[in-house]
Structure formats: C-alpha cells, structure tokens
Amino acid sequence: MNDVRHTITAAAAPETVYELLADAVLWPVNFHPTIHVEKLDGDSRTERIRIWALAGDQTKTWTSRRELDPEALRITFRQEVSQPPVASMSGSWTLTALPDGGTKIALDHSYRAVDDDPAGLAWIAEVTDRNSRAELANLKALAEQADADSARRLTFEDTIVVDGARVSDAYAFLYEASRWPDRLPHVSRMDLQEDEPGVQVMEMDTVTAAGDRHTTKSVRVCFADERIVYKQTVLPPLLSAHTGEWRVVAVDGGVAITSQHTVVINPEAVAGILGETATVADALDFARNALTGNSRITLEHAKAFAQGEASPAAQD
To answer: Rounded to two decimals, what is the model's pTM?
Structure first.
C-alpha cells in the first residue's frame, strides 16, 4: 500500500469542521472536485455513498463506506467499488483541537494501483495530491466563514406539470442537450461529450435578453427517466458554485418536471458586476432571476416536446 498524509490548520472549532465533512451530500457545493454524491444507505454512524468527482480531466465514480465518530472527531472511509487505475483506496479525516480554538485537519490516504502499475501509481499520487490540497483549502475557507457562507448560498426550484405526457419523453428532452441549440432560443452553442454512459460533459453558450453571451461548462450525471444532476465547472464570475438537478416524476394524468438550482455567490465580484452599492442579497436575487428565467424557458419547451408539439425554436 502507498500511504500519504495532507494537513492544514483552520481557525474554526473542530465541531464546525466535522459537520462540513459529515454532510457528504453537500460536498458538490463545498468542494470543487466533487460533482455529485448519492447516499445509498446508512445512518449518522455508518453510511455507504457513491461519489462522482473530477480526477484531472476525467470524471471518476466509486462507492465508499464511511464510519463517522463525532466524539473522536474522526471519519474513516474505504472504497468498496473503485475505478481503474485505482485497485483499492481507504483513509481518514482526523481533527485535533488546538489551544487557540482552531483545528488541525489531517487527511490520510492508503491506495494501491491495479497490478501495481507504475504509471497508474503515478496518476493516483498526482490526482490524490491535487484533490487533497484543493479539498483542504476549501474546507479551511468554509469552516472559517461558516456563518457568512450560509448567507451566500441559495437553493430554489421551478416545476411545471405536463398533462398527457410520458416521463420518457420529458426526460429525453433534458437528456438530449446536444440538440438544445435547435430547441432552446437562449442556447447558441453546445459541445457535449458522453464518453461514459450517463456521464455528460457539456460546454454551452447562452445569450441573455440583452444580447450578452455567457460560456459555462458542466458535468452531468444522468439517471434514466428519473433525473439529471449537474455541477458547473466553469462558472460566470458572480458565482463561486452552482449545482442543479432536473427531475421528471409521473403524476396523475401527466408528468411533473422540476428544475432545481443551488448557487453560492462570489462576494468579490458583486460590486464589479452589479455596482458599488450592491449586496450579496442583491446578487442572490439577480442569480435567481437569471437562472429561473432560463429554466422556465427550458421547462416550457420540454413541455411542448413531451406533448408532441414542435418546439418554437426548432421552427425558426
């Protein structure tokens, strides 16, 4: 086995740090490499989670079992299902209270490559080092600004009910994002790759009502005829994080389609974009209005598609 430790010190109480680590479902918002986390089963002490995360320029997924010990301020993990070149991976988060009220955070990994391949070992070492450093830096910043971070974050959603439609048709519109430039008036360009079934990387240009063009890049994890979760990896300057979800659910006589967003404002960009007197609350309202506007356009076109009507964008 190959063992490595990364450490950092945070000016925050150990309990604050522990809560951030324990809530794995929120990792995509908090930690840059994490795309999505599914809690498969378990409780507050033992759980199994499936993680999708960036590893270099690739998206990897694995299933881990975690043992959580809030009294000892320690969380251990072990991958049950790894993805090559990783043959096995385990480790722990250990928090130590410091005399000044801060916390020493230690992140340990033990890993082995498939067939102990030297190239595989080098790749794992490089990715583990880069992601560990990024996660620790994120964790430190989050813990030290815990109160402020909650004020910068907002989750909201919009739902439309499509009478007489099938779940598969509504899902197909959302899944076939490569066709959005022909189907959605605010999408001018789409570059979509799906090297692994159900995991899409998409780079998209959208145009605002004022004619401004924005480029974003996202990774999407698709659960057939159910939902698509995503995380933006290239963001507009106003946001420091943006995750979302499209859900399709059968209801009496039709389908409910929901668009959900979670955004975190980048406070340093607020004044430059919205003016010197603008606040984080103003930025949250601005982001919500912009994203809700685009979501509602997409929902209306998804409705027309699912009902078998021609999309207005496709008729232009």
So the answer is: 0.89
